[in-house]
Design a protein that fits this description.
The complex is a heterodimer. By secondary structure, chain A is an all-alpha fold. Chain A has one domain. Chain A has twelve helices and no strands. Chain A starts with 9 loop residues before the first helix and ends with a helix. The C terminus of chain B is likely disordered. Chain B folds into two domains: 296 residues; 128 residues, no CATH class. Chain B has 19 helices and two strands. In chain B, helix 7 packs antiparallel against helix 8. The radius of gyration of chain B is 26 Å and the shape is elongated. Classes of the chains: A mainly alpha, B mainly alpha. At the A-B interface, helix 2, helix 3, helix 4, helix 7 and helix 12 of A face helix 2, helix 3 and helix 4 of B. Bound molecules: protoporphyrin IX containing FE (HEM). The site of protoporphyrin IX containing FE has 22 residues of chain A, from helix 1, helix 2, helix 6 and helix 8.
Chain lengths: 334, 476
Amino acid sequence: MSLFDDLGGRGGYLLLLVLTFALHALLIGFVLGAAAWATVRALRGGDDPIAGVSRDWLPFGLGAAITAGVAPLLLVQVLYQHRMYTATLLLSHRFMAIVPVLIAGFYLLYLGKSERVQAWNRVRRLLVHGGALAAFVFVAWTWIEEHTLASASPEVWVAHYAEGRLVHRDPVIAQRLVVWLGLAGTAYAVGTAWLGGTLAGNAGMRRLGAVGLGGLTVALGGAGALAWTYGNDVAATAGRAVVLAALAVVAAGFGFLLLAGGKLRAGRRLATAGVIVLFVAVSAIRESMRAHRVEWRGTLDGAQGLPLFLLFVVLGVVAIVWCARLVRRHLDRV
Amino acid sequence: MDPTTYPVNDFGPAMRGMVIGAVGILHVFLAQFAIGGGFVLTYFQWMAGRGVPDARRFLDSFFKYLVLVSFVTGAMTGVAMWLTTIQVSPRTIGLMVDEFHWIWAAEWCCFTVEIVAGYMFLRWGQRLPDRVRLRLLVTYSSASFLSLFWVNGILSWQLTPGSWLTSGDIWAGFFNPSFWPSLFYRTAVSSTLGALAAIAVINTMDVSRAERHALIARASRLLVPMAAMPVLGLWYVAVIPADSRAWITGGSVAMSMFLALAAGASLLIGAYALIGIWWRHLYVSGATAALLLALAFGATAAGEFVREGARKPYTIRQVLFSNSITPAEVVRLRRDGSVTDDPYPLRDAVRYPNAQLVLGARVVRAQCSACHTMKGANALVHLGGGWSMDQLRLNIAKLQLTKAFMPPFAGPAIEVEAVAQLVAWEAAGAPRQWPVSDDPAVLAQIGRWLDEAGIAPSPERAVSRPRGETPVEVQP
Ligand code: HEM
């Protein structure tokens, strides 16, 4: 793929952006899915093991997703600085609203996890879980709006500013959101199959398989609409990533089918591999299309400090693996 | 579009700097609290391992607060900080990102470790032996301290870029003259905040008075680094540029007041710790601890205010003025005009009776709005509205001499005149009719004033040469 050719320069940044954004999107997908499941559960009343697992892991999931979002936030500033900043300034308070909304959503998750809330009546539980879900969908919408405005032409920016608008409207925003919400279903199904596999039992696994399949279908529908809007652009700029995404859809779909059919181990593995590749591929498609339109900032060619970052990637991985093994060894003993 | 041109938002009566100030202070406070909290946890876990009673109980209740307050709000205000800095000065943060993004990326690795280790402790800590808990907490607090380490280098570089200016070496910029004093100072502050919060939490615990007293005595040991703060503060003040020092220590009434406030509040906390906790073995109630924390917040706020203010007229010393114009660009803008290439129209252009006032408003938006509003905070109308026309013209043309913490005016004579007319028009109550002023003799006089002022910042803030830019010629 020509996108990553120059790994010492632009290609390296793009590759990192694609990978870290895919990680952000996977975790966000889990958060959106888990919040949706918890909301539906509250709506129907009662409880089920999958909802329990979702509530339990949501706060950490969101913390991890936000942390993972900081890396692409940095890289987007490096690669598309002027566009990103302009969109952020134009959306102003409307964009900044994600901060209080996310803080509120975060606390709702901690609240939703507490035993006290589980004893509440249905309406109040619905408010807690549904409130968190609404907050996250709002944030997703906002990031897409920001991305869309950042990709727009200077004429659009000037008109936006002149009219003193705070929102940017574009049919593409809703289409992209549909894709991400569908993909969220797949990330959630896979994540929960690992976190709560034993608790959920066979019936639970079947339902997760169905969620994954449903998510794929929705995502494909949204992608179809997007391809219609963008036309030939996609195939021309992201050909290989599109092929990879198609293969990943097949693998994930097959995995979810196995899962739905009760083949837990094989289904979970295949679906997981498919979903991870799918997120990376979608992230690459997204980046190819943008990089295609935006010129490279040559000023970065002399940037210093890369070895430090690489060192800390290694140190970070070592530290996390070390902690995880330490905890696991001692938990097993108890 | 020129990649240095950005749309400028209007924050009403508040100026842009105030917005970042508010978010920044909250973020710095919470972030330092999180780091200090890490010290507290590690210290108490170490004691728990040595069999100190109640240490473990304290830990488990303290950690809940730390997670709820600092994980959530601290992490989110970190993101908020990024987004706010973009809102306030995209060019400043852009230059910082261009220069230091790999260091920031390394910081992100540390932050990730901090979050993961912290959550492991939260989730499984209760079921782990002391030895393992200690290791998790050491990882957690070292990672959070390293985050401070990295960010501190980048932030202190803004005021004292040191030999980076000539060599362009980011390590020279990172380990700049104010790196160590500000790192140590912030570490001491973190430790203080952690200790105060711990004392507040201990007060909510259900233990006997004697046990509570013993825990508080241990927590207050983390107040010891406070003793070094006066020396560290003096060290910091000694290494910052002479003009910044002069300004915060008497040159600006507001700055000096805030500096005094920060020092006074810190002294009060220190005095209480010394006299109350150690000497008289006083019992620190929850209310007192909360009060001390509030004082610490005040000290942080005042300190950050001073640190931000000390940079004026730059956001990055000798590289970028507060109004996002570089010293080298001033030459070109004096010739071509500061808003000639600005594609963003005024939103309220119909308000103005003539094109000159529209130009004036565009110039103010580009060059002054970082520090002034028209009628709200630090309002131009209040500052210069009572002056005669010639006073206005002179003071604006010689902006950097009018007040040393303003950058040089970066436009031709017609822009000075337009701004002067605008201020006069607003001061006159914005009448429907206003004559255009285009007397060539007036413009020629302004041109001479501009030349006299030159393009260098006020004499005591001389420009040396930033990397990659041609030397700046000072007009005769
Ligand atoms: C619940 C919270 C969040 C949700 C649901 C969410 C969702 C999303 C979605 C759907 C996109 C894709 C936009 C597109 O393709 O057009 C996105 C992009 C992004 N998000 Fe998040 N996000 C969340 C929080 C955050 C936070 C807190 C950060 C910052 C640390 C962040 C950083 C980013 C970045 C940098 C991008 C890429 C923007 C670009 O490529 O132009 N996200 N997010």
